[in-house]
Structures are given as C-alpha cells and as structure tokens.
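Re: Re: token formats

Sure, here are both.
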Amino acid sequence: MNAKIILASSSEIRQKLFRNAGIPVITDPANIDENSIKLSLEKENKSHDEIVQILSDYKGINKANKWSDNIIISCDQILSFKGKILSKPKDIESAKKNLKNLSGSKHFLITASTIIENKNIVWRHLSKSEMFMRKLNDVQISSYINEVGSKCLSSVGGYMIEEQGIKLFNKINGDYFSILGIPLIEIINFLYEKNMIK
C-alpha cells in the first residue's frame, strides 16, 4: 500500500510520539474554527463526549479532499471540569487561575480520534481519563509556572504530565498516550491491520 499517513494536527507531542514509534507521518494541521464550533455545539446541548468527537471528525474531514488517497488521522481533546469545558489558557495568569480551580479536585481529559480513508470516516476512538490533582497552594502553582514558562499555554489544563506537570497529580486513571492527546496503541493496531506499518 502506497498511501501515506497524514496527521491533521499541529501538536508537537503527537508528532513526537509517532517519531518515537518509528512511524513516518506527514503533518498537515486542520484549519477549522474550533472555538466557534465548540460554542455552537454547547448551545445545542451536546455532551462533552459528542463535542470532542465531532471536533476530531471535522479536523480530519477538513483534509479529506487534499489527501483523498491517503490515511488521515485527526484528534481532539477537551478538559471537562464540573460540567464545563476548560480551554487552553490564553496567558500565564489564566494558566495560574486554571490550576487554582483544578487544585484538589478531579477532572476528566476526554480524547477523541478519527481515521479517514477515501474521504470516509472508517475508525473512531474515544477515551476518558480521570485526573486527580493534588491540593496546591499559590506558591506551588507559581513555582510550577515559573519552571515551565509559556509551555503551559499549549495544554488545556496548563500542565504536561510528560514533563514537570506530573508533580501536580496524586492519582491518574487512564491511558497515558490518550492523556498526551492520542490513543497511540489503538491507532498502531489499526495501521498494522492496514499493513501500513511493519
């Protein structure tokens, strides 16, 4: 099979996970207005599971015509906290505020993935991880933000568990790769079945 694997994502961690696994992908981030779609879906009273899956689907569909003879992988992730969706922090102060809100509480990271082949959705996956953040005081939050700097703005919760962010948690229930933004093992299984990797 000569089809290429297209990753419709700008996420550096997703790209790195594929590189580390020795799976060559072409990165071509989707061009959709995520916030507008998210707001519209919330107004329709869609569940958080539905919202994240629809966003993932849209990202893949956005690239379906351009890469029609290839396999397109798209993903989306949302942070669900007390019935609301938390978006990526806009600035350092927002990141601190997010961490203060999440401190001492449980939240969910919901990760959706979509695979498109011949312009059709042929595979979907949804995972939900429970994230238990330890109780943090203002000094601990500031110290963490100072350590990671602006990198905290690339994560919906303002943390990256693959780096210093793991210190903020006392318990996690869920698939590690899905927490990082992509269910890598399940996607690899799909690619093996398609004989796209050896």
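Second one below.
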Amino acid sequence: MKKMFEIIRPDTNINFVGLRNFYLGLSVFLIAGTLVLFYTKGLNYGIDYTGGAEVQIRVPQAWDISKVRSELENAEIKGLKVQQIGEPKDSQYLVKAQGDESSLNKVAGQVSAALLKSLKASDFEIQRADVVGPAAGESLRMSGYLSMLYALLCILVYVTIRFDLRYSPGAVLALFHDSVITMGVFIVTQKQFDLQILAAVLALIGYSNNDTIIVYDRVRETLHNHPGMDIEKAVNKAVNETLGRTILTSACTFLTVFSLWMFGGKVIEDFAFTLMVGLVVGAYSSIFVASSFVITMTHYYERRAAKQKSSGSKRRVHVKPEPKFES
C-alpha cells in the first residue's frame, strides 16, 4: 500500500505555544500602530464614503473598459474610477470621481471633453450625472463600520453557543485583529477604501472564522481524548495536527485570489488584493492569536473557580463539558 502524500508529518511538534507571547506582542504592536495611523493619516476613502460625482456613459461597442479608462485618465479627473454596468453589448460605464455638488457639471464636462478627443459627439452619450453628498457618504461609512461590528457580535454569540466562554473571546479578537491589520495595509498603501473593499473585509471575517473553528474543534477533541493534558499541550498538539490543513486551504485560496489580482483587471484588483492580505493575516491569527486566548481564558476560569471554592462561595463558573466523540 502506497503511503499518502503528507505536507506536514503526523509527528510534527512545532512549539507554537512557546512563541505565543512574542506573537501576541507583535499583534498588539501592529494593531496599535494601525489605530495611530487611522487617526493621523487615515484611510483613503473612495467617493462612496466621501461624496463625489457619478457619470454614466455609453461608448462604442468596440471600446472595452481598458480603453475607456485610458481615454479618461488623460482628463486628470480626481479619484477616477471606471466600472462597467449592464451587459457587455450595452457598452455602458459608470465613471466615478471625487468632488461635490459645485464640481458635478465640471466632471461631466471633463468626461465629455476627454471622449471628444477620440470620438464624435454622436458616438457616445452622457446618460446621467449624479452626486453623492458628503453627508450621505459619512452615513454610509458609519454603516460600514457597524456592519463589521455586528458581524463580530454574531460570531461571538455563535462561538459561545458552539463552544463556550473559553473559546469565543479568542475567535472574535482574532477576527478583529484580521480586520484592523488589513485596513492598516490600506492606510499604508493609501489604496482607495470603498464599498467593494468593505465587502472583501466582511468576506474575510467569515473565512477566517472557519479556520479558527477547525483549530478549536481539534483542541476540544484533544482534551476529550486526553483529559489530564495541560491546556498548553492540548492547544499545541491541535495546532500542529491542523497545520497541514491550514497551509493547504490557505495556499489554494491564495493562488486563486492571486490569479484574480493578476488577470482580473482593474475593477477587481483591489478586492483581490484585500483578500490576499486577509488570507495571510487570517492564517497567522488562527495559529497564534485565537489559540493563545483559549489558553488565557482557560487559566482565568480555573483561577476563578479555585478562588470561589476556597472562599466558600456557592457561585460556580459553569463551563461546557467537552463533547463526546463517537468512534
């Protein structure tokens, strides 16, 4: 019988838990640095969040989105972004630019002037011109942050029910860690942060939580099979046993997203970039952040239970027993 290919040997025993203080310190440093940059340098918000002009145009079918973008880039429109809408045969595009109500007509005029350099007036059409006000953009920005907060709260409730209070704080903190550091990369690179990027961050919250749940399941199974094992050894064993799965799934997903980033074009480039950053950060947090907090919370509840027992308090900390795994 041929031996199956194994990316990680079954007897692998990397001391992840021994390095947890270093990596937790690194994570705290990165999060603190991101928060400082957020309040000093800030995100480069797109017009979805800051307000600006939207001009819908129709051009000849022979033009693709790259052609439209290259023609309009010569017009030096601030914060230019081109998005194809409708069916390709319709040849309709939405041109977004930063600005306000006073500059709306100017943006439409810039678009028209840029197209007139290569086309006749009868060959294209300015179908509509709208403005997204600063107040609406600010409201949308707040809604975006609240959506991330609600997603984290829902996951907190889910993990608490699925596991218990020893596990849920680590899962939520790991996801908060992933979201903040991913946004930190956008602050440093000053790439535009808009609704498309927010969607990518929300997708990462769900994806990263899945990887964390896999590790948590293995921790719980290990504690069931080895009741007397220290939590540090159980967590380290679980992380090592799921390491191959983490590497394979993250690498396969990363290669897929990398292909979108390389060949998907400008429209999806930043979305794919966000996913690439989040995949790397998410794999890191599942190993070093989420699992480390299981150890911290387990020791906390053990100390609290011992203190209450010694003081004669009738109140006890009730933690879910490990589930029974059928063989």
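The radius of gyration is 25 Å. The beta strands are 44-45, 52-58, 81-85, 92-98, 125-132, 192-193.
- S.
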